[in-house]
Design brief:
two-stranded parallel ribbon; alpha+beta; 3-stranded antiparallel sheet
């Protein structure tokens, strides 16, 4: 009788462990299906990313180069963003340029990205201290370029925050002084 009771006890434990095992196996199967779905989604995203890059990067590079040429009066004519999102200008790493040139390269890329993604119409650009590292001539070229984009409809509204004492003379510039 005692052995029979032990057998029943172990059998109940065994059946309980089998039920737990079956539940875990079912969860594992569900997770495997999810993993396969995620792998498929990741593969799709990678392919989409590759296709987007193949369409976006040439347009971005062309637009950024045109903007940089205008903003630097021809000093910087070529900006390229690689597929790994590294940025070069004139074939050199951006870090090798002066602070002013780096600022212009970044501004050109940002405006170009907005234009490419929004089909040439960028509703508003807000810039805080864009001219902080620039001399008066570079600042004037940058602001004139941005003003030209407004005149051509590439930017609808431009808000620039600056602590520059001397205003840049632009026809459509509204200046607000904060004290």
């Amino acid at each position: 009788i005692k052995l029979s009771e032990q057998y029943d006890y172990h059998l109940a434990n065994y059946n309980l462990e089998i039920a737990r095992f079956d539940k875990r196996a079912e969860k594992i199967s569900e997770l495997e299906v999810k993993v396969e779905d995620h792998k498929l989604a990741i593969a799709g995203l990678k392919e989409t990313k590759k296709r987007i890059k193949s369409f976006l990067l040439p347009s971005l590079n062309k637009a950024a180069s045109a903007l940089a040429t205008m903003m630097t009066k021809g000093v910087i004519r070529n900006i390229e963003m690689g597929e790994d999102f590294s940025v070069k200008a004139e074939g050199k790493r951006v870090e090798l340029f002066s602070g002013s040139e780096q600022a212009v390269i970044n501004i050109a890329l940002r405006v170009a990205l907005g234009q490419v993604l929004n089909h040439k119409s960028f509703s508003v650009i807000i810039g805080d201290e864009l001219d902080a590292s620039m001399d008066a001539e570079r600042t004037a070229a940058l602001w004139k370029s941005l003003n030209l984009l407004i005149e051509n409809g590439g930017i609808e509204q431009l808000i620039l925050v600056s602590h520059a004492e001397e205003p840049v003379d632009l026809p459509n510039l509204s200046r607000i002084l904060f004290t």
